[in-house]
Structure formats: C-alpha cells, structure tokens
What we know:
The structure holds two protein chains of two kinds.
Chain A lengths: L7 H32 L13 H28 L3 H32 L7 H20 L5 H15 L2 H11 L19 H36 L1
Chain B lengths: L1 H19 L1 H22 L3 H22 L6 H5 L2 H7 L4 H17 L1 H12 L4 H28 L8 H10 L1 H12 L4 H32 L2
Amino acid sequence: xxxxxxxxxxxxxxxxxxxxxxxxxxxxxxxxxxxxxxxxxxxxxxxxxxxxxxxxxxxxxxxxxxxxxxxxxxxxxxxxxxxxxxxxxxxxxxxxxxxxxxxxxxxxxxxxxxxxxxxxxxxxxxxxxxxxxxxxxxxxxxxxxxxxxxxxxxxxxxxxxxxxxxxxxxxxxxxxxxxxxxxxxxxxxxxxxxxxxxxxxxxxxxxxxxxxxxxxxxxxxxxxxxxxxxx
Amino acid sequence: xxxxxxxxxxxxxxxxxxxxxxxxxxxxxxxxxxxxxxxxxxxxxxxxxxxxxxxxxxxxxxxxxxxxxxxxxxxxxxxxxxxxxxxxxxxxxxxxxxxxxxxxxxxxxxxxxxxxxxxxxxxxxxxxxxxxxxxxxxxxxxxxxxxxxxxxxxxxxxxxxxxxxxxxxxxxxxxxxxxxxxxxxxxxxxxxxxxxxxxxxxxxxxxxxxxxxxxxxxxxxxx
Lengths: 231, 223
C-alpha cells in the first residue's frame, strides 16, 4: 500500500494521479487560510504584529518536519539499501532550507518590535541557526563529490549525525531560560492559545505543508528523471 | 605478541614521519601565536577585557589551528597505498583509524600543551583558569582528533571543495567549546561538566573509528 514511499516508479504513478487535485486543494486551503488570517483578531498587547505568527510557526514546524523526514529516509536507505531515500534527501533539503530561512527572518522581524532586538543569543534561536547551517552544508555536500555512491552515503551519515540537533531545538525552551516563549500549541489537552487564533494557525500550517509537498513532488520527479538519463 | 609488535611498529613509523614533518607542526603553533597577536592588536590592550575574553579566544584559535593540518590525516597514506598495506598485515580499517587518531593526538595535538601556558600569559589569565584550560585541552584535543579523522576520511575522494572538512569540524566542535569554556563559569559543578566532556570524548572515540573505517572502505572501492 505504501510502496510509493520507497519505489521511484510507484511514486511517479501515484504522484501523477494526485498532483492536479492536490494543487486545487492547496490553492483553496491557502486562500482560506489567508482570509482567516486577515479576519483573525488583533492581540491586546502585540497588536497587528501577532499576525507574523501565522508565517513564523508553520515554517518552523515544517523546517523541523523536513529534517525529520530526511533522517528517517537516511536510516531506511542506509540500513535496507533502498536508493529512493537518497533521492528524497537531495530533493527536499532546499525546501527545508527555505522554511528555516523564512522562520528566522519572520522571527527576526517579530522580535524587533516585541523584544526590541533583531537577534539574541537565545538557545532556541541559536539551535535553529545551527539547523540552517546544517541544511546549507547538506546542499554543499550535494555539489561536492564526483562519485555518486560516496556522495549519497556521506550525506546520509551526515544527516544522521546532525539529527542530534532536533531534540535540542524542541526542548531548548524547557531546558534553558530563554527569551523565546515555550510551546503553546503542542499541549494537546489545553493549548494556551485562543481558538480564534488557533484556527487560522492550523489552516496555515496545512496550507504550508501542502505547498511544501507540491514543490517536493516536483523536485523528486525531476531528480528521478535526471538519474534515469544519467544511469 | 605479534599484534603488539605491529602496533609498536605503526607508532614508530608515525613518529619518524612526525620528525620529518616537524616544520609543519611548528607552523601550526606559529599560526596559533600569530592569530593571538592579531586578536590583541584588533581589540586593544585593555587588561581587564583581555582577561575576560582570553579563554574563549584561546579555545577558538586552537580549533582553527587544528583544522589547518587536517588534510594530512589520511591523504598521503591513501594515495601511496600504505593504508592497504596496513590492512593486508591484518589490521582492520577501523583499528587503523583508531591508531591514527591516537598518533594524531600524541604527535600533533600534544605539542600545543607547551604553548598553552605561554598563550595564557599573554591574556593574564588567573592560574586556576590555566589549570582548567590544560585539563580540558587534554580531553578536548582527543575529541578534535576524532572529528579530524571523520572529516579527513570523508574528504578522501573530494577533489573540489576542501573547506567543507574544516566546516564540519567547526560544526561538531560546538558542544566541546560550550562545555570546555563553561567549566570556568560554573566552578561549583566543575566535576559534572568535566564528566560530560569525558563522556563526549568517549562517544566520539567510539563513533569515529567506525565511521572513518566506513569512509575509507568507500573511498578505496571507488578510487
């Protein structure tokens, strides 16, 4: 059933069938999300700047999610010798980079009016900056080696070592005293965010992940085609 | 007994190579001192300022100077086939990597120990910080050797982008820097931080021979 996650040919077939409906659904959800963001209430302290959250939080989540997917695929492809994971690693690394940059930029723009500074050496901010550096190194490694096997395995091992950073990012707000606020949504029983703000946030998260998914499908297909010509 | 003799001969060869290349090592130490001078010229000679930031500067410069000679780690042995000869004499690639790490630690990192007290005189560091610096350096340089082994073995087939090896060493040495400089700020839990540093060193001593061995095999297969 989930063969399309591991086999390039099944992936091509599956993505061909879902691609057009996916684009339609994504545009509907993205428009809905933007309207919801426009109509969402202003914060009593932060005013209009609270709306940066609807960009900042989804991109941060997706930056972490992309890295987690790459970690899982690295384990699968190294352990079971499935080369599709290497294709995915190469294809989605730039997407994660873009999400990380979006997260850092929007956070910086939010921090100036709220904290009074563009950047602080806070545990959360620093670990996300290190994540960005790791992503950039992965992209560089993709351009580095001439031999394909060496390149793929090197990148997979590097991704595995770099995944130490993921729990550090997640728990940095709990382990250290940070200026960055702790998680407000992931407390599933009682999220400390009002429903009128939670709704647009979740819709925007779904929209962002679908946009990322569409770009990922396109990039993976291009990568598969390049390799077929190359081999 | 034969195995011990092999190890002994390995170190004998490494020490001979070290004596032949002693100028290389001395240039690393000169680089270290010159960059200290550059820092002092850039910051001014305010004693209080230098004392407060001296330790961090010394550690980061140690990192930079240890990445200078990284390319020598495996490349010569790889290109002239010595690695294969070692392997044919019955030593696994993982154990070769382990021996290489130990010899790099002894012959390249340890000479820096002599230069550390002199460097701390330049920054007027208090004696307790010099003591901590030397203690953390003995462990930290072992971690640096392990990182150097990983990045050097990774770069064996890399013909285009050499600086990526130094970038990797700098990236993974972030925890080392945090704990070894932080050991002075939290004097009352000195031992907990020291044990953490020791733990990181042991983890890397476990991981790096394995991954270096894997990279060397990969490189030999695709040479």
